[in-house]
Amino acid sequence: MAEKGACFCGTVTFEVSGDAQVQGICHCTDCTTWAGAPVNAFSLFPADAVKVTGGEDNIGTYNKTPGSGRKFCKTCGGHIFTDHPEMGMVDVYHNGVPGLTHNPSVHVFYAEKTLAIKDGLPKFKDMPSEFGGSGDTLPE
Ligand SMILES: [Zn+2]
Ligand SMILES: [Zn+2]
Questions:
Q1: Which protein residues have a CB closer than 5 Å to ligand 2 (ion)?
Q2: Ligand that comes closest to the CA of residue 10
Q3: Which ligand number lies closest to the CA of residue 26?
Q4: 60 Cα to the center of ligand 2, angstroms
Q5: pLDDT of residue 1 exceeding 80
Q6: Residue 112 CA: which ligand is closest?
Q7: Which is the most buried residue in 45, 69, 106, 126, by most CB within 10 A?
Q8: Going by DSSP bridges, is the β-strand pair 59-65/68-73 parallel, antiparallel, or unpaired?
Q9: Domains present along the chain, CATH in parentheses
Q10: What is the pTM of this model?
């Protein structure tokens, strides 16, 4: 089953199929300054699970780092998703896909947090080791 997503103005549309490999809350400085928000609720899907269905030529990409191609709509500036080619994953932003359930299991880059969230979930200093991080955790 595919869930439909769109940018803020609706010009760019996309679909996400299957289940996210991992969902969580990212506190990294790149996500939070790009979003202008204290956290980013992410859902990582395999790259082939995300398909653009409309407005593809209206998508802009900003690469601050080679590992993250941040996609936005050229009309409204709304964030669409972020490619992580080195991981073969796409980070879908929860609120861009109304039908997507977000059940976070981890917090990542908690060392960079600007907002503490005391929800009892593991707080990784950077990333879990299976995603190339240190695997170190921090107190809430
Ligand atoms: Zn738009
Ligand atoms: Zn981040």
A1: 26, 28, 31
A2: 1
A3: 2
A4: 19
A5: no
A6: 2
A7: 45
A8: antiparallel
A9: 2-129 (2.170.150.70)
A10: 0.91
pLDDT bucket at 100, cuts 50 / 70 / 90: very high
Check residue 94 and give its pLDDT: 86
Going from the Cα of 55 to the center of ligand 1, the distance in angstroms, rounded, reads 9
What is the enclosing helix (H) or strand (E) of 88? none
* Cβ-count burial 111-129 (b if 16+ within 10 Å, e if not): eebeeebeeeeebbebbbe
pLDDT at residue 131, rounded to an integer: 81
Which pLDDT score, from 0 to 100, does residue 124 have?
98
Q: How would you list the strands of the sheet with 2-6, edge to edge?
A: 2-6, 13-17, 50-54
pLDDT one-digit tens code per residue, 38-65? 999 999 999 999 999 999 999 999 999 9
CA of 23 to the centre of ligand 1 (A): 24
Angle subtended at Cα 93 by Cα 89 and Cα 97, rounded to the nearest 5 degrees:
110
The arithmetic mean of pLDDT across residues 85-92, rounded, is: 93
Token pair 């980013």: residue: 40
Q: CA torsion sign, 103 to 107 to 112 to 117?
A: positive
